[in-house]
Each structure stands twice: as C-alpha cells, then as structure tokens.
Specification:
Layout: H1 2-21, E1 36-41, E2 56-60, H2 84-90, E3 107-111, H3 112-115, E4 133-136, E5 146-149, E6 157-161, E7 164-165, E8 184-190, E9 196-202, E10 211-219, E11 223-235, E12 238-249, E13 258-270, E14 275-289, E15 317-331, E16 341-355, E17 360-378, E18 381-394, E19 404-419, E20 422-433, E21 438-448, E22 454-465, H4 469-473, E23 488-500, E24 505-517, E25 520-522, E26 528-530, E27 534-546, E28 550-562, H5 568-574, E29 579-592, E30 597-608, E31 616-618, E32 623-625, E33 636-647, E34 650-657, E35 669-671, E36 674-675, E37 680-690
Parallel strand pairs: 6-9
Antiparallel strand pairs: 1-2, 3-8, 4-5, 6-7, 8-9, 10-11, 10-37, 11-12, 12-13, 13-14, 14-15, 15-16, 16-17, 17-18, 18-19, 19-20, 20-21, 21-22, 22-23, 23-24, 24-27, 25-26, 27-28, 28-29, 29-30, 30-33, 31-32, 33-34, 34-37, 35-36
Amino acid sequence: MIYQSVFWMMFFILSQGMLQAAPDVRGGSSMSEGLWLHIVQSDTTETDDIYRKVPVITIREREPVLPQLQFIEGARQPWEEPPPDEERRAQPDTVHIWNFAMQEGFDIAETDSTLRWIQLVNLFDRFYQQRGAITYRMGTKGRMDAMELHAFESRHLNLEMEGLRLNDPLTGAVNWNRLAVHKISEFSEADYGAVYDANVRLRDHYIIQPRTYLNFDESKFNHRNLEFSFTQNFLKTTNLELSFWDRRDGGGYSRQGVEGNQVVARLYHQLNDNWLAKFNYISNSLDRQEPFGYNISDPRFFAFNRFIESPLQSGANSTQSSNDLFIQMHHRRSIEQDVSTTFGLHYQSDAWELTTVTDSISTNFGNLELFARHQIGFRSTSATATARSFLLNEREKQNLTRTSWLGAQGELSASQGLTRFAKIDIRTRATTWNDGRLTTEISGRFVLNPTERLKLSIFGGQLSRAPDIQSLYWTSAQFFGNQDLPNEESLTAGVEAAFGLTDILTIGLRGDFRETNYGLFIGDDGQFTAIDPYEVLSGTAWLTLDSRVFEAEVSGTFKSFNSGSMNPINQILDTSGDRIWIKSHLYWKNYLFDRATYVKAGFSGVVSPQIFRTAEYITPLNRWQHGTNEFFNPSYYRVDLDVSARVRWFMILLKWENLFDRAGQLGYFESTGYPMPERRFRFGIRVLFTN
C-alpha cells in the first residue's frame, strides 16, 4: 500500500506540472475516467535570439486505469480551465518574423546578401554593370544621374521605398540619393511594359542585443562616406534604429564637389501577432557645386587635365534636400501568413535651390498622403491593390505659376497561373490631379517555362503620361512652361528568352520596341514642346556563368532613336547615333584560411565603341533630356578591380576604379561635358559590433 500511495502522489505531481507547462492543451474527460499523458513533440525553433524553447505537450485519452483521487480543496484541478491571468503568463514570449510578399509581376533584383559584396553608396551605380542599361553619370556621386534601360528613358522610371514614392515632384525623375542604401533588405523590379517600377524594402531587426554598424569608404578627390547606425530591441516587440551618414565626393576637377548627409530614425512595434506599427523618418541633404559642364570645343580633343580644365560656371551652387516620414499599420491574418494589408499616413518634402552669379531658382514641395495597400490570393491567382490620395503644395512660389494640387492614384498588380509552367502578370495604374491632368498606364507579360532550362517572356504596354509640373507651370529667365501640352502617348512591345546551356551556363536575348507620340522636350526658344512621333529600338544579348567558385557575364546592348519627321528635335534624335555598350565581369569567390574568411574578387568593365549623342543635363532645370546633346561622345572603355573579404562581422572592400586610365585614352565622358574621375583606389570597411 505504501508503494502504491507514493506512486499515485508522484503521478499527480507530474501531471500538475505538465499541464501547467502546456495550458492551451487540455483533456476532455474526468479523472474518474482516467488520463494518460504522452509527449508527442518537444522541439525548438530559433531565429536570431528571440525565440524561446517551447515544448508542445498533448493529452491522449486511454481506457480508465486510475482510481479516483482526493485533491486539496481550493486547488485548480487538472481538467479545469486556468484563470485568464495565469494563462496569459504562461504564453510564450515570442515574436514571429513579419514577412512581406513581393508584388505580383516583380522579380527580385538585389538583396542584402548581394549588395554587401560591392562598394555601393548609391543604388543607381548598380545599373552601370546591369545588362540593357546605358548610364549617364556626371563624375561625382550625389547628383541626379540618368540612364536608358532597354526602351525606357529617365521619365519612364518609378521608385518606391516602403510605400513612399521617391520620384521628384517637379520633374518626375527618380532621386536615387534618397535611398538608405546600406539598409536595403530587398530590391525588386518590374522591367517590362509601359514603365519601369522598382520597390525597396528596408531591413528589420529582431535581435535582442543592441547592434552598432560602421560603414566607411575613402578615396582621393575628397571621396568619403562615414555612417554610424545603432539598433536596439528595448522589448522583444519594439525596435529603435538610429543612423547618421556623412557623405561627400569629388572628381578632381574644379567645381565638382558634393557634400551632404542622411539621418534615419525608424521605430516599429508589434501590437500583437496580427498588427505591427511602423514609424520611419529619413532626411537627406546635398550641397553641390554646379560647373554647368566644362569648356569643350571638340570632345575628342578634351585634355582631361584636372588642373587646367575650366567649368562653364565658376560660382554656381545648388542644394537639394528631402524628408520622408510615415506612420504605417501592417496586418496579417496569422503568424504563418505574409502581411496582407497596410495603412499609412505619409509626409514628404522636397526642396531644390540653384544660385548662380546672375540668378536664383528655388522650389520647395510638401506632400501629405493617405496610403492603403491590400493583397489577396486564391489558388493560382493573386493581386495587390494600392490607393493613394494626396495634397501637394509648393511653398516658395517663385518659379511656378501654380503652387497647389489635389490628387489620387489607384494601382493594381495581378498574377494568374495558367499551368505549371505558364503565367500572366498585369500591372495597371491611374493618377489624376485637380488641374485636369490624368496619367494611365497598363503593362503585361506572358511567361512560359516549358522546361527547367528554358524561360520565354512576351510583354507590352500602353502609356498615356500627363505633362509634369515643371513642363506646364515653370517660369524663369531662361525657360518657361507650356500649359497647352498634350499627354505623351506610347506603345511598347518586347520579347525575352533565356536558355540554360548547362547547369551553370545561360544564354539570353531580349528585344524592345517603343513608339512615342508627343514626347516632351525643350525647344531652342526655352519653351517646353511636344515633338513628333519617334521610335526606340533596343536589343540585348548575354552569356552568364554562375557556379560555386566563379561568377561571370558578358553582354552587349544596342539602342537607337528613329524618326522620319522634319521637326528639328526629331532630326537630332534620328541622327544621334546608335548606342552600343559591351559589358563584362568575372569574379572568383571561395573560402580561404581554413574557411576563416570568404573572398570575392574580380574584374568588371564597359566598352562603348560607337560615338553618339549622350543625354543632356540641363542644370537650371535639374532635368535630363535624352539624345539632344550638342556633341557626339567619343568611344571609351573602363575597367575596375574589386576585392571583398568577410571575416565574421567584419568586411573589407577594395576597389581600383578606371584601372587602365591613361592607357590608350586620356579620360572619358559618360555624359559629354562632365569628365569621369581618373584612376583611383577606394578603401571600404563594414563592421558590425554586437553586445
């Protein structure tokens, strides 16, 4: 009897402890019927350092084997519901990762893992090595550079960061300098159809311990970037991130300097398993010396001597600043699902000022926006709808004849799977303003994957683009707008094919066609005008190698403007020359020193063998115009050497720019009139301090 009593007492104590360890799982029968406890799972899941080990215990009914027992009066019995406060205390203190699904029709182009291996302080520079892209940079980082990507021109590009639009409200051009480039988690793009769309999502932090990041880059000609970033989870549900980035650059020539900074404050708090609140503030400021280009009689004979070349303006300066602020609420249906709904209140400001010896130009925009986005999916169909309403004001009231606008925008992206190997993607958007303007666009593609190695894509789009604010309402001593401008109308079509020759070798081909009516350009009289129809043809071919040890690609891009009109601007476009860019890179990557470090090293280069008119930067408008530069740009080449090494939380990045400078060419222009820097060595480090 003594042994039996001891046995039943031990069983009771164990049953009490196990039931309290798993209060959400309770038996359904009385003790008189008997219970048999069985641990069916005791596993752990850990991400970063936030998940605790939670044993999962279930109760399974068996035949009655126990006699009825007497329990202490007032104590909770194993089959009784626990009090609410006790159940709340027993809940695991767990934060489940918040996942954000990519919009339909987009493809991942870059992630934090790919960007960390290159010295990048402006995301625009990635397009320099991107197949299908022809870039127009002005020699120093921090300027409003331009590019032609396939059949897109600068005015056809859109950029969004965490729901915030980063296109300049005055000209509509993308301002890549506003991105917090070292905080990017994912960069996705839709590079087909009527317009190019890109989305950026910033990195979230879930680590309990505080983290401090140091990013530093330095080279000659006053090139320096220094960023300190601190993040701390004060609670497992609350994170604060603060950073300051001092950035500056120079090309060695007179009046090329750029100095500025970026300040970031981010706070996000998980209210419960279904709701997340986010606060984001990013401030950017850039002070630029404006040379207005350099004295050139013939680009072929430009000396590229930084000690004697003189700028067209010796006393011009500009300042461009922006503030991006939002408060957002994110909702998911369960911890296993992605975020499906986002509501936000956004405020953005964008100021630009240009001062010359004889004139001063200034604009200052403020934009207040209500934002909502919802994603749904059913079987092989998914869609994302976005709505915005906004109030835009210009506060300087100096160079615009109208200074306030109300507007709204609706957007829908959808994907429909047809079979296991075929799908259709559609993107459509409409934007309206209270001054009567309306922009509509629709893009689509049909994707076919008949085998693992073959991918085919047919795409097209239609764009009706309203004139931007500057082209309608601008007024200054040199340029003025035209309120009678019609919408730009364009049709696009293209095809892309990629075939895997082997598991590591892929060959690809892409062709694009675009027909544009009423494209906006600036005439000889300084007034904005809509020119006659013209066509753009673009073709790109590439061969890619991707193995465990080597990463390489060779690509060639051809692009031309064609027009039969006698309009002077159309004739300049038609005779602007064929653009041909040949790009290549070869990187070796592997572990060294008994896997203590991982190294990636190799060469990248560009050859432009054909003379053509580059895009033209019009400084008094802070605006680019494609194909109308006065001069033909000579052929040129450039080769860079990169070496990156990572040892635990420490990275070293070494880069030799323009490695073969003065070997066959004195220098080169990407944009005629703005010399690129000569050969220089750049040193960079990335350090993560953990406590």
